[in-house]
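Quick entry between incubations.
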Amino acid sequence: MPDRAAAVGHRRFGRVRVAGPHGPAHDGRMACGSTSLWNGEATWFCCGNAWGPCAAAGGGACGTCKSSKLQAAWPNASQACWDITRPDLCGEKLPRRGCGSVMKVRHQCSGASVCVTVSDCGPRTRSFCSESSCCDGTCRTNRVIDLTPAAFSAIGSLSTGTLPVVIFE
Amino acid sequence: MSPAVTVAVDLAAPLLALVLGTAGAGKFFGRGGPRSASRTALARLLGGGDRAARALRGLGALELLLCAALLALPPSVVTGGAATALGAGFLGYLGYARRAAPGASCGCTAGDDGPVGGRAVIRAAAVLAGGVAVALARHPWWIVVPSHPAAASGAVLAALAGAVALAPDRWRLPWRRLRLRLTGHPLDGTRAATRVPVAATVELLERSLAWQSAAPLVRSALLDHWDDDGWRILQYSGVHGGGGGARPVVVLFALDAAASRDGVREPAVRVSVLDADTGEAVALTA
Amino acid sequence: MSAYRTGDPLDRRRFLTAAALRGATVVGSGVIGATALGALDADAAFAAPLRSLDPAVADATFVEGRITGIDGGLLAVAGSWGTYARVRVTAATSVWKVRATTADAIATGDGLYARGVPMPDGTLAADAVWVNIVHLHTTVRGIEKTRLHLAHGSHEIVGHVLADTTSVSYSGAAPTADLSRLRIGQDAQVLGAWRPSDDSVELVRVSVGPGAGHHR
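Done. Structure below.
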């Protein structure tokens, strides 16, 4: 597997930071938050005028959402947003964090983390009350954050769908 | 006008009253209030959910009033004209809503959350056409119905069919539910399925300590999986070691193929790490 | 290691199965031992130090777009916002398209998400690619033997039921192949594969909540 060997060798010579399309939040481990904000389940969604059913999603509630950026949807991005997501129906009194807020989302067990910017409203917490994701015996309940594919795949596999996470700001 | 058309035109008043009565009652007595009204394009037109809610309620009252007039008064240009104006107003509003707020709910039939679609436009056009018919009608419906029972029941059936076809999705769901209840669940055949989906095995793995321990090595998502003698093998690729000693590895997990987290709280997972080039086991302590 | 190197996938799987079963067994919160021939020192392998390694994917780069060309293991990808990328798929790259599969299943016109390592030649050496994967919040509008009718925002989507693949998670329980408890009106999160040819979705996993559809 020569290609693979090259990729591994590339890693071998230190971490190469390529200025990706994601801007300064590209490095998931940069210090973008250390104060605990919330914990729960993370899911993923697509946004922006991308392929498939995503084409209709547009730029999201903030108008800036793109699947390829490290972004997230927060259930309390505004009052109108809250009226749709209603996390309070599942007992989650999430604080208001509007468009542009920056959060660090850390996988509860692997420790992999990613910095995201709030760019949309979601997930629809009320539809999945008391659902939980667990690892190593600890469970996180209720869907509290939706990540773009770029952000979700940085801490887990897209085919998994949900992850237990701890959120910092 | 032929006799059949005359009868149909004379029966327009009660049918239109039925449509306006249902829609009006939904708007006037609905509990949605400002919250659901704020999702309509009307909120944008009037500048706020509260105003939109009041406007919807007022419109509901108007529709109920017109419904009562259509039922109680003989057909006239006044009631017909009012209904025609209402239908034209609906059409104008829907046109505005489609252009101004394409994703917004129309608020047409109270609680209809979907955006403005073709059915809403046809409903508004039907109200307009009904209004014109009432204006042209010559006899009150309570005289026409007893004298033409067959035509009247035919008109009612046609109107019901039209109502079902044009009803908002939300109103069609009870019918579909009823149909499933009568004919049985189409997917009942899967009830006895004993196969544990691969997704369930992956979920069991990802919640285990084994996964947590090995995850730092893993770079890929699930690469391959297969069942062998009661075991389900899940294969990933990864990298072991840092600096000059980094090597591509194959990470293998073996779990009970019949286990999912509903039956097993703490799964036994076998973990192996092989050198991807040679297939030899990798000593992780190196 | 001839069985490992052989081109026969069955031989290779047999070899890997044997290797997997020789591995250390980890149960719940502890290692209960490696079996014979275990090259792993179980305690050392799964003790704390491994956890302090860098998270696997934090240094990854992400690519999104439609596949415009396939040349061997190299995918040409047109991003949805005018960017272009070349994604290299190797034997170590996981490929998801409805299920874990190989690069042969990828077709021009497919949508793609890829995570990997940027190479000096400008390509992305992919660790994982997900082809046509979608994760949609929908409402079940109709149920048939081979498909579900789903409302996704203002759009109707046809979701195809795949006999050997589709699973449902009810109220957070483990995914099951029993689809008979799906109800019309339920809110359902759908993980599936978009079909570019007819804009429908092949259903892989459907999640429905408790009393979904009742909260308004």
